[in-house]
Amino acid sequence: MLRYTTFRILAAIPTLFLVTILVFFFIRLVPGDPAAVLVGDIQNIGRLEEVRRELGLDRSIPEQFFAWIGKIFQGDFGVSIMNQAPVLDTILDRFAVTAQVILIAVLFTTLIAVPAGMIAAWRQNRLTDNIIVVSTIAAMSVPSFWIGLTLILIFGIELGWLPAVGYVSLFEDFSRGAVYLIMPVAALVLGEVGGVLRMARASTIEIMRRDYITHARAKGLSEAAVLSQHAFPNAFAPTLTILGMIIGSLLGGAAVIETVFTLPGLGRLTIDAISSRDYPMVQGILLVVAVIYVLVNLITDLLYPLFDPRVKL
Question: What percent of the chain has pLDDT over 70?
Fold first, then answer.
């Protein structure tokens, strides 16, 4: 186990280094000048050059990169150009909002998709399976932002059952905060449940054809026992990989849902930072998201052998 873990961690280091390079250089391909955004009057050349020196933009790109990397290793992500606040503090504050939505969405996606996929596999090519498969295809065909807008129209405006927009932290007022999160979480779950369900169904079908499943049935075990004790532990490993990928995709697509429901999360912060040409903020956000994505995949790799005995530690 130690060798397997060490290998996975070492394999993640080059990925993170490549990500830092791409994050830094790609943001500089975005048209616009942060100094001009701050000064406002681009005719004031003297002030423009002064601000560029303050931001370090007068130095060469490699010099800016190594200066940024040096500060990152010291835990200093810089200061936001938008509001002059520490970048890392702002990111962590906004990430708390995004994390609540994403983790709850992943939890409900798992609770819905995995049992439904196993049931569809158990009832393969029957009415139950066909209904689940058709529903899955329909859910995968609709963008999450369209689902969100539809939910707002129906439950927020027409019926008035739920608040259409806004946010209240679960840590401040749990019951009220939960109400505000119902529609954003539902939009994410409906958008992602199809992929997980299909993987759960496919892996369960494969497992159900194995000899040890036939042997378990021959011993007189009920179908519920066969599914829970033999099929689920072995079929969950591929599904676990998909769940890890979903967390990453939700982080990347959080901006859409957060914009639709006006959530003060990391996605909206990214859009605002890009619009303001806030290099330190955009770099910090993308780096933090990349690190989280790599860590999630690393954790998934480390958990995989626990569910799949074919993977050697």
Answer: 87
- Global pTM value: 0.77
Neighbours of 129 (CB within 10 A): 17
CA dist list (Å): 211 to 49, 207, 215, 222, 229: 74, 9, 6, 16, 15
Comparing C-alpha atoms, which of 148, 130, 160 is closest to residue 189? 148
Radius of gyration (Cα) for the chain, nearest Å?
24
**Is residue 304 a contact partner of residue 240, using CB atoms and an 8 Å limit?**
yes
The whole-number average pLDDT for the span 34-60 is 68
| Residue 114 pLDDT > 70 | yes
Q: Is the pLDDT of residue 309 over 60?
A: no
Taking the C-alpha atoms of residue 24 and residue 68, their distance in angstroms, rounded to an integer, is 9
Distance of alpha carbon 204 from alpha carbon 122, whole angstroms: 8
Give the Cα separation of 19 and 21 in Å (integer).
5
Q: How far apart are CA 9 and CA 245, in angstroms?
A: 18
Closest listed residue to residue 95, CA positions, set 267, 231, 233: 267
Total residues belonging to the chain: 313
Q: Where would I find the beta strands (DSSP E) of the chain?
A: none
**229: Cβ contacts below 8 Å, ≥ 6 apart:** 216, 221
pLDDT tens digits along 212-240: 777 777 877 777 777 777 777 777 767 77
Q: What is the pLDDT of residues 65-92, one digit of tens each?
A: 888 888 888 888 888 877 778 888 888 8
- DSSP β-bridge partners for residue 79: 86
For residues 264 and 181, give the distance between their C-alpha atoms in angstroms, rounded to a whole number: 12
The dihedral over CA atoms of 157, 162, 165, 169, expressed in degrees to the nearest 10, equals 170
Beta bridge partners of 86: 79
CA distance 282 to 277: 8
Residue with tokens 């179908």: 223
- Report the distance separating Cα 136 and Cα 244, nearest Å: 19
CA nearest to 226, candidates 240, 238, 212 = 212
